[in-house]
Design a protein that fits this description.
The chain is an alpha/beta fold and about 700 residues long. It contains 19 helices and 17 strands. Helices cover about 40% and strands about 15% of the residues.
Length: about 700
């Protein structure tokens, strides 16, 4: 169900910018002062039912005073709350349908579905043997779908109830209906097959209308039943007396059973499922996701991040040479590593251009220009092909790449390789003029809350947003100088976070601004943000084909949901539902939620989803992504063996990704010169040369697979 569409519908019907909030609510409610309409998470019974429920609640929000809502506890004279509910529903539904004639069909079809599902209990009893209020309730909602009969005496009251215009009219008609029932109906028909006795009239609230009943007697419904059941003999226990008293309340003439059944069965409209831990039927914990305002506050542009780094350097003049931003060793290492990254980017670019050209020529069309070809005129007697022709190449689609790099603490041992991979892809995009944006994502921890001190989490929004930061690393809009600076900064930051000690220098991770600090892995929140960033990116560059690349170790954080003080429905321990751009995605774990987030992100953006996992050893790669249930253990061993041999693998259609690359880190760049470590014998040199060529071959194979996927 598209929740955004229903929220817009509610606002349009209300003719004001109501705040519409879905949540774990047992029933709808309206905050008159703050103009907040709270709607439960109803089961998907079709658009007609949903529009009916939304239209009904908006009708209450527009026309019903606080005292008139179903959940109001205010007593209004002797009029039962059920009377007010039924007549007020008639009034607000008629008014909303008169205002918006297009919704009449939705109401009719919606109530038809509810009657078919027996939410009013009309399948179990003959409605025409019921009291006036039950028949009025069914007649007003069914609109002829369930045939209802009224006597000549009842018809004027029914007509008056169907035409109420104001809340005062509702009160007056309800009083008339209450008095008429007192005077003309002795008792309500009991359910068929029930052992309930006739109720007393003590609950009616009208002393003058109470019927006399012999003390201690319990009249049967008829003589035949009395003989069969043998009732009327013996004394009743306290428990039996309480059961009969409860049954009497249900059958009281001033408690319409259709209204009671609907209120009782209303919970069946809620979306629920069994909790696998305690086998109890509950609802998944719901979150409204992340507001647009907070999404904007999570993101830091490169300009904002660079300003914070400069500010930090100015405040820490003594430590600047030991930081990632000013360490001379970082500059030297960057100058040494850059040619290798650039060479791989060149390979990607050449391969991409070749495949792009192949696409254009494979779909080329040859057309005649209508002009004579002088070189073919000599054959005019034997051939009709004497005109000049032109070749029209197929127009290749415009590409764009959005990349998100995991900067969580668990990435420390591979962050250098991951960052180099991101820089390489950025270089490739610049060479082939593909628009791109690259972001890092993580949490800043408690010490970094000042980064997002303006974030305010409201209602049932995703919690802990104040710790999340998504920082722009580099993009296609940068000029050459800025891109060089941004790439060098990213390179240096990765050195500061790396656990690898194979370099000749070491930078402490603390020698960085909080904007570059590592935290945990907010993949789910980042995916929601990616939808907003990607849609803006596509509009800006008129992108036809978008590729979203996520470089991570694959473990999303557990999502916290802000406490909703108005929630009153039991929820699962682990199951969560999140409103992701108007559609609910759900999962029993953070990994399942993330998978469904990727699927939803693809639906929203139309992008192709890439996952890159850079692994140190076979024990860690792709964890959580290989479906062990569908593969035998021996096959998984073969997969690991192949990965060790080739240095990379590509999985198709795994856990929300279209292509999932598992790359073995530590591979040399293709432009690295052959420098044998052992030169004692010719055999040593030959073996190292074979290994060197093997690495080059594997890198080229990986490049080919990446460009195949991007250019496809």
């Amino acid at each position: 169900m598209n929740l955004s569409a229903q929220e817009y519908l509610a606002k349009l019907l209300a003719k004001e910018n109501l705040s519409v909030q879905h949540g774990n609510y047992s029933t709808a409610s309206f905050d008159v002062m703050n103009r907040v309409l709270r709607l439960p998470l109803w089961e998907d019974k079709g658009k007609d039912v949903y529009d009916l429920l939304v239209g009904h609640e908006v009708g209450h929000a527009l026309y019903t005073p606080a005292d008139g809502w179903h959940d109001s506890e205010k007593k209004i004279g002797k009029i039962p709350r059920a009377y007010l509910n039924i007549v007020e529903d008639i009034r607000i539904e008629r008014m909303i349908q008169e205002t918006y004639p297009g919704i009449v069909r939705r109401f009719k079809n919606g109530y038809k579905r509810l009657f078919d599902d027996n939410l009013f209990g009309t399948d179990d009893r003959d409605i025409n043997k019921a009291g006036l209020m039950d028949r009025l309730n069914v007649s007003s909602k069914g609109r002829g779908y369930v045939p209802v009969e009224f006597s000549d005496e009842e018809s004027p009251l029914v007509k008056e109830a169907m035409e109420v215009k104001t809340w005062d009219d509702v009160l007056k008609v309800c009083q008339k209906l209450f008095d008429w029932v007192n005077e003309n109906e002795e008792e309500e028909e009991k359910p068929e097959g029930s052992d309930a006795t006739f109720p007393s009239n003590e609950m009616a609230g009208d002393d003058d209308a109470q019927a006399e009943k012999p003390e201690g007697s319990t009249p049967p419904e008829d003589d035949e039943e009395m003989d069969e059941e043998g009732e009327g003999e013996g004394s009743e226990s306290d428990s039996e007396s309480k059961e009969k008293e409860t049954e009497e309340k249900k059958s009281d003439k001033h408690s319409p059973w259709t209204e009671e059944n609907f209120r009782k069965n209303e919970k069946d409209l809620l979306e629920t499922k069994e909790d696998k831990y305690d086998k109890e039927t509950k609802q998944s914990t719901y979150s409204a996701g992340i507001s647009d305002e907070n999404l904007e506050k999570i993101v830091f542009t490169y300009k904002e991040a660079a300003a914070k780094r400069i500010e930090w350097c100015e405040e820490n003049q003594r430590d600047i040479e030991y930081s990632a931003y000013g360490n001379p060793a970082v500059t030297a290492d960057w100058e040494k590593s850059k040619p290798g990254l650039n060479s791989t980017a060149n390979l990607l670019a050449k391969d991409f251009e070749r495949k792009k050209a192949a696409f254009e020529y494979s779909r080329a069309l040859t057309a005649k220009t209508g002009k004579l070809d002088p070189l073919k005129l000599h054959a005019y007697k034997t051939s009709e092909d004497i005109f000049l022709t032109t070749t029209q190449l197929a127009q290749a689609k415009s590409h764009g790449i959005m990349m998100f790099v995991d900067y969580s603490g668990s990435m420390c041992d591979i962050i250098e390789d991951v960052t180099n991979q991101a820089i390489t892809i950025a270089m490739f995009c610049r060479k082939v003029h593909i628009p791109f944006e690259v972001y890092s994502f993580t949490t800043a921890g408690w010490h970094g809350r000042d980064l997002q001190d303006e974030i305010v989490v409201k209602g049932n929004e995703i919690d802990d947003l104040t710790k999340i930061k998504v920082v722009e690393m580099f993009s296609s809009k940068m000029n050459n100088k800025t891109f060089e600076e941004a790439s060098k900064e990213a390179f240096g930051i990765s050195k500061a976070h790396s656990y690898r000690r194979d370099s000749t220098y070491y930078i402490a991770g603390g020698q960085l601004h909080t904007i570059d600090a590592m935290g945990s892995t907010p993949l789910i929140q980042t995916t929601i943000l990616a939808a907003k960033l990607t849609k803006a990116f596509q509009r800006k560059h008129a992108i036809q084909k978008t590729n979203i690349m996520i470089l991570t170790d694959g473990y999303p954080d557990t999502v916290g949901i802000n406490d909703d003080e108005h929630a009153d429905v039991k929820t699962h321990r682990n199951n969560k539902m999140i409103n992701f751009n108007g559609k609910i995605i759900s999962g029993e774990s953070a990994r399942e939620l993330y998978t469904n987030c990727l699927i939803r992100l693809k639906e929203i953006t139309g992008a192709k989803m890439f996952g890159f996992h850079l692994a140190v050893d076979a024990s860690s790669f792709g964890q959580g992504y290989w479906d062990v249930k569908e593969k035998q253990h021996i096959e998984f061993k073969d997969v690991m063996k192949k990965w060790r041999k080739e240095g990379h693998l590509v999985w198709k259609k795994q856990k929300g990704y279209d292509d999932y690359f598992i790359i073995k880190v530590g591979q040399k760049h293709v432009d690295d010169e052959f420098e044998p470590q052992k030169t004692e014998t010719i055999r040593d040199i030959r073996n190292e040369f074979k290994k060197f060529n093997k690495n080059k071959k594997h890198t080229k194979q990986l490049v080919a697979k990446i460009t195949d996927a991007v250019a496809a």
